[in-house]
Amino acid sequence: KVNGIAAKRLQVIVTEHGHHRSLSEILALLDRGDLSVSVRTRASGVFRRLAEAEAKIHSSTAERVHVHEVGANDALIDVVGTVWSLERLDIGSVYCAPLVLGSGVGVSAHGPIHYPAPAVMEILRGKPVRLVADLGETTTPTGAAILAEVAEFRDTLAFTPERTGYGAGAKTLPDRPNVLRATIGTG
Length: 187
Known about the structure:
Elements: H1 23-32, H2 37-57, H3 73-88, E1 94-96, E2 99-101, E3 104-108, E4 111-115, H4 118-123, E5 129-131, H5 141-150, E6 151-153, E7 160-168, E8 179-186
Parallel strand pairs: 1-6, 2-5
Antiparallel strand pairs: 3-4, 7-8
């Protein structure tokens, strides 16, 4: 339970840490995986978005950048798990309200970094967002890329909720529950 809300937490235990991969290495891993064409295509699209954002931030190309934290095993599991789940649940369309982007300073592979991370801002260019002071990192580059690839962003959402699920984040936050809510509905 997170602040009284029953939520699921999937903990991925990675035995190999610190491995940074290029986009071509990530795409090769996806091609070797036992994945449907649609899962492989969507997951590849997510990683292309991440690599293109990193390339722009670092004045490089998508093929030359190493995707640092997002090229690690846990990011592969996050991305593939999400697009696989959408297929498995037969979700036809995904809609996303404006993302709340916090602020603050964190640590990246390159040292201190301001939130929202530059890659998040690049990935979400043209999407509706809300900037809120002093929340820290509320949207990661991986999360932003997944949503940018699979969701249609809307300023307002009107639908009839049918089922709602909650995913629990690992951090304990002092001023709000650390949960991600997803709702299946019709509209």
